[in-house]
Amino acid sequence: MEEALFNLKGFAHTNNIINGGLECRSSSSSVFIVKAALRSDLYKYYLGILGLNSNQIAGEDSGQYTTTCFQETSNAMQDYQSANVLATKCFDLENFIYSPNPVQENLTIQYKKNIDQIVIYGLDGKEIQKIPIQKTSAELDSNKFEKGIYLLKVISEGESAIFRIIKN
């Protein structure tokens, strides 16, 4: 039975492909939750690059997921957590535009629905800026950001997606 659990597609396994695994803790914090969300959305971003359509990617948000945690001081395995996710709303990637990327001054963002909020993160997962929008389009001034790579989380009507932007 245990072997079958390790072969299920799921959150921990898929994140291992991207960045070496999901952090496991006995307690949680808002930073940890953001890291987990960023890694999940990054995985979905890579699925899009591989050619999966938005319905196939949305399928990754339902089903059974398992996480195996290891002690920090050894490779001893700890009990895994198992959770069922019924479904989530799917962000419509085909109707979202952000340009130019790389950006030098202003980044234009457009979506078919109202954008509630945009959150900008550094690659370390730290929140840099939170911007309320409440419109279908916005211009972001990138002049206050240093050159580098940032993650742009767009939240709209309970849906969210994360995009990579490059500041030149």
Automatic annotation (TrEMBL):
Gene3D superfamilies tied to this protein: 1.10.530.10
Keyword annotations from UniProtKB, A to Z: Signal
Domain Secretion system C-terminal sorting stretches: 100-162
InterPro entries: Secre_tail (IPR026444)
The protein's name in its UniProt record: Secretion system C-terminal sorting domain-containing protein
